[in-house]
């Protein structure tokens, strides 16, 4: 229950007449003393960071401060494209032009490019096709360097090397360099009826000689000749030097359609075949039917083991399982 107390009449009589209930209460109870207290002057002042205002659009007649420049954010840049190295150009052979006597070809039973297709040409077409396929499959310069040799003398390695070179030169867009690497008994130039001159051994002995200057074009399209050159007592040492790799590489570098055929001495008669085997990708080992012994063949193969691909070519074979030979097929025959 609300408490009721008596009002002091004396006090009420002294109070000025109020016009409202609040005024009369103030006069009786002294509400004027309830004013707020004074704030002390030594209170700490808290600092509040000023709020950043968004930039206002420029209006006519107003002065705006210049905007603060902001550095652009660096953008990632693609690495500069590196130009692919241009392929090295093949050397151009600059030896004197040699004209091959076609009568010499006929007398030596070699392929004559202008003559009709013969059984001999067909046989060497088969041989060259195997070499071409393997060279293209390997896809390197070494596979286009072919060594032709035999275990012993008289087995027909120069005959096969020359016919192979002429058959290969008949291919479209192919260059063939026939190198006479038989410095003991050079016979390539003699078989072709051309003059011998400086050649392979001169390029190996003299580092100032450019080997391409000793390679001569012939009047058989695509066929080039490099003679054996000047022989000396140091031929074996020249062949084992680093110069041999430089000369061989220079002749084939940058020329994917160029083949080098080396006609070397017999493998069991002299060392050049074994030395050059380390610089070629294919070797053609010529053996004579019914004459070359199995032991000689095995020994020759071991000497050429530095070459990764050794093929066997049987020369002067008389036996045919079918009873026929190339050249039997002609007009009127089926």
Give the name of the CATH architecture of one domain: 3-Layer(aba) Sandwich
Instruction: List how many beta strands DSSP finds.
Output: 7
CATH-derived topology of one domain: Rossmann fold
CATH class of one domain: Alpha Beta
> What's the total helix number?
11
Cα end-to-end separation: 144 Å
Give the CATH H-level superfamily of one domain: P-loop containing nucleotide triphosphate hydrolases
Brief summary:
It contains eleven helices and seven strands. The protein has 334 residues and is α/β, with parallel strands linked by helices.
Overall description:
By secondary structure, the protein is α/β, with parallel strands linked by helices. The chain has a domain at about 100-315: Rossmann fold, CATH 3.40.50. It is built from 11 helices and 7 strands. The chain has a 7-stranded mixed sheet, with helices on both faces. A hairpin with a 5-residue loop joins β3 (about 215) and β4. α4 (about 120-140) packs across α5. The chain is elongated and about 155 Å long. The model has no long low-confidence stretch (mean pLDDT about 80).
């Amino acid at each position: 229950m609300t408490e009721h107390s008596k009002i002091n009449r004396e006090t009420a009589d002294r109070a000025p007449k109020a016009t409202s209930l609040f005024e009369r209460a103030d006069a009786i109870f002294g509400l004027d003393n309830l004013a707020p207290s004074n704030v002390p002057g030594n209170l700490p002042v808290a600092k509040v960071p000023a709020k950043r205002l968004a930039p206002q659009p420029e209006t006519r007649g107003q002065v705006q401060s210049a905007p603060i420049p902001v550095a652009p954010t660096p953008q990632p840049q693609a690495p500069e494209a590196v130009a692919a190295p241009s392929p090295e150009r093949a050397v151009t052979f600059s030896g004197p032009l040699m004209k091959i006597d076609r009568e010499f070809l006929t007398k030596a039973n070699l392929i004559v490019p202008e003559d009709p297709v013969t059984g001999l040409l067909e046989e060497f077409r088969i041989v060259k096709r195997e070499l071409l396929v393997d060279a293209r499959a390997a896809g390197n310069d070494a596979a286009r360097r072919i060594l032709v040799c035999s275990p012993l003398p008289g087995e027909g390695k120069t005959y096969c090397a020359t016919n192979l070179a002429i058959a290969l030169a008949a291919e479209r867009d192919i260059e063939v360099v026939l190198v006479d690497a038989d410095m003991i008994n050079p016979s390539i130039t003699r078989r072709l009826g051309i003059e011998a001159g400086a050649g392979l051994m001169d390029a190996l002995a003299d580092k100032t000689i450019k080997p391409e200057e000793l390679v001569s074009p012939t009047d058989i399209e695509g066929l080039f000749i490099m003679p054996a050159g000047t022989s000396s007592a140091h031929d074996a040492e020249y062949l084992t030097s680093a110069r041999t790799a430089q000369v061989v590489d220079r002749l084939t570098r940058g020329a994917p359609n160029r083949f080098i055929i080396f006609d070397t001495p017999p493998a069991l008669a002299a060392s050049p075949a074994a030395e050059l085997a380390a610089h070629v990708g294919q070797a053609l080992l010529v053996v004579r039917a019914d004459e070359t012994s199995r032991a000689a063949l095995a020994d020759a193969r071991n000497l050429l083991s530095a070459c990764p691909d050794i093929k066997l070519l049987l020369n002067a074979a008389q036996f045919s399982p079918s009873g026929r030979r190339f050249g039997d097929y002609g007009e009127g025959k089926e």
